[in-house]
Amino acid sequence: MAPSTLPRGIYPPVVSFFKDDKDETLDTETLKKHVVRMVRAGCAGVVVQGSNGEAVHLTRDERKANVKAAREAFDDAGFKNAVLIAGCGVQSVHETVIFCKDAAEAGAEYAMVLPPHYYKAWVPLNDIVQYFRDVADESPIPIIIYNFPAPVGGIDLDSDTLTALAQHPNIAGTKLTCGNVGKASRLAQIPGFSVLGGGADLQTPFLFVGAVGTIPGIANILPSLCVQAFKAFESGDYKRCMELQANLAESDWCVIKSLVAGTKYALSKYYGYGGYGRRPIARPDDRIKQLFGESFDKFIALEQQAFKETEVKP
Predict the structure, then answer these.
(1) Cα Rg of the chain (Å, integer)
(2) 146 is catalytic
(3) CA distance from start to end of the chain
(4) Does residue 1 lie within any of the structural domains?
(5) Fewer beta carbons under 10 A from the terminal one: N or C of the chain?
(6) Smallest Cα–Cα separation from 175: which of 51, 38, 314?
(7) Is residue 52 assigned to a domain?
(8) What angle, 0 to 180 degrees and rounded to 10, lies between the N-to-C axes of helices 28-40 and 60-77?
(9) Which residues contact 293 (CB under 8 A, 6 or more apart)?
(10) 175 given a catalytic annotation
């Protein structure tokens, strides 16, 4: 049973991995290695098949396989307390509930759910609110509402809407990739409702207003740097925290400008695994390679130093 409030910490939204073959076959063995690297760096857990995880490129069976692989990897490596969040949101209550049940059966403790958006022009806000309530009624695991306007036609749930949804006993929190710090501050006042930032560039501001942690894409590449800044905040060393936050904001900008293709290129370059996204995500071009050129090397050096401070052994 998942705790009603998420443990504080960093939750990398891990990429999915595919073999470089004609069918772009799912590679769960590489995912296992990757998620263990995240928790060894001090992360509280991971999110599988979010935006970075190419959820929209995965079949139902592949989603289940990813969740199962991540849970097995944590357990086999001795990290049984690592939290596993699975992206489950699709367009109907019916299918979203199926994905939530699949995720729970495969070992996830939480389901992260986007608003439905295909019929945005005909579905009013009240119906979107009811969608979340209906999913939460039927999901065997708690729901984290994923507020990310960009991929859902601009739907941006405000704090009044999220406050109303937070009253549901099976809605545990929200990920605010909208980046609205004021919204985060208002929602963080709700007892038992977990607010998570959606990027490393706003990690510290979100923590200052009461967020329990962050789900930052850059943590795929620099997990220890994210954890190091989080620990500095938790210890009250705000001067150091702000210095570390500057590194997060600068490095995260490279990921923001390159998304999945850039993250996977950086993983391949610096860690020897990563591969490519599924089509239509293109192979990395010269622009992406330049983003992760010599100027990014300094962050890898800082990551290696930070790992010595943040490493967790089972």
Answers:
(1) 18
(2) yes
(3) 21
(4) no
(5) N
(6) 51
(7) yes
(8) 40
(9) none
(10) yes
Catalytic residue (one of 110, 146, 265, 270): 146
User: Domain containing 266: what range?
Assistant: 9-309
- Asked if residues 139 and 101 have their Cβ atoms less than 8 Å apart, the reply is yes
Of the residues 68, 175, 183, 264, only one is catalytic, namely 175
| Number of separate domains in the chain | 1
314 inside domain: no
pLDDT tens track of the chain, all 314 residues? Answer: 455 689 999 999 999 999 999 999 999 999 999 999 999 999 999 999 999 999 999 999 999 999 999 999 999 999 999 999 999 999 999 999 999 999 999 999 999 999 999 998 999 999 999 999 999 999 999 999 999 999 999 999 999 999 999 999 999 999 999 999 999 999 999 999 999 999 999 999 999 999 999 999 999 999 999 999 999 999 999 999 999 999 999 999 999 999 999 999 999 999 999 999 999 999 999 999 999 999 999 999 999 999 999 999 98
Is residue 4 a part of any domain in this protein? no
The dihedrals phi and psi of 44, each to the nearest 5 degrees, come to: -75, -20
With tokens 């209906």, the residue in question is: 134
Order of all β-strands in the sheet with 45-48: 9-10, 213-214, 194-197, 171-176, 143-147, 110-113, 83-87, 45-48
Phi, psi of 214 (to 5 degrees): -140, 150
CATH code of the domain containing 129: 3.20.20.70
Q: Which of 81, 188, 95, 302 is nearest to 113 (CA)?
A: 95
